[in-house]
Amino acid sequence: MREIQDRRSIRKYSDREIDEVALGKILESARLAPSGHNRQPWHFIVVKNPERKRRIAEVAGGQTWMLTAPVFIVCVADIRARIETDEVLYIDEETPSFELKRVIRDTAVAIGHILLEATALGLGTCWVGWYLQKDIRPILDIPPDKFVLGVITVGYADEAPGQRPRKSMEEMLHRETW
Amino acid sequence: MREIQDRRSIRKYSDREIDEVALGKILESARLAPSGHNRQPWHFIVVKNPERKRRIAEVAGGQTWMLTAPVFIVCVADIRARIETDEVLYIDEETPSFELKRVIRDTAVAIGHILLEATALGLGTCWVGWYLQKDIRPILDIPPDKFVLGVITVGYADEAPGQRPRKSMEEMLHRETW
Q1: Which distant-in-sequence residues (6+ apart) come within 8 Å of A120 by Cβ?
Q2: What is the set of domains in chain B, with CATH numbers?
Q3: How distant is the Cα of B172 from the closest Cα of chain A, in angstroms?
Q4: What is the ipTM of this complex?
């Protein structure tokens, strides 16, 4: 697919805004992602406020390039889509739960759709994951039982990087057994 | 994107084989997936052997429909792509490691590419995750430090299911904060 070939991580964006129609198509692509038992354990927070973006970039290793993107989509995996309990839950990077792994898995696929749909629309993206749950959640009032799987910067690219190197097919492909 | 709209989980396949060119394109789409620090922490095992497929379907809840698919792609997340150690590692559903979450995340995106590229080629797929690591790994000689994230059945569909219900956009979309 062209979109898979053409997708790049874009770290420099032009001033051009994203219209709500394009943004809606991107979010719709995530809504249609497959998920285990069709639980759809994902939430998306669209962030455009400059001060909020600044605080996110700050906890994400101070990556100021992020601020050139007009929109961040903060992508959240919700373990409560798979666990019905009244118990208080606290989730972080070291939580052992299998259910957390499952909602991370499913939300990752939905984010993959976002990256490809944006590419189809001529938009650039970058998946940022360099932050701690305890630092990023308060900026967005996200409860401590949710896992922020990625902050996706979205905008029109103002750079045209080449494809990053990849392992050869031989390094990842096995036949019949490991 | 058409492929995102058209993708379905297919649980009944025709007898038609998959040629190696199509299979190569599907695997190439996974190879091009994005990953944290470009670590590409994924492996893919192409399984066609009927007896091996039978044993996989057996540990996957006895889902005999799987056997109608000519090819399984067993998708494996490898924590050693992010942890350099000579230590013996054992990974399973309850392992707390952040690095395991990261390789699951990245491998899930690569599997998402497989599902979409197959759709683009007119092939059907289903992501099967209903097994335990300890049961499925020995069938494929997979070491105990690897995590089998999914078994993807691939073949030409012999059914045409509708789109599964989805949550409304309102249920998953937030603006500025949770």
Answers
A1: A3, B1
A2: 2-172 (3.40.109.10)
A3: 5
A4: 0.98
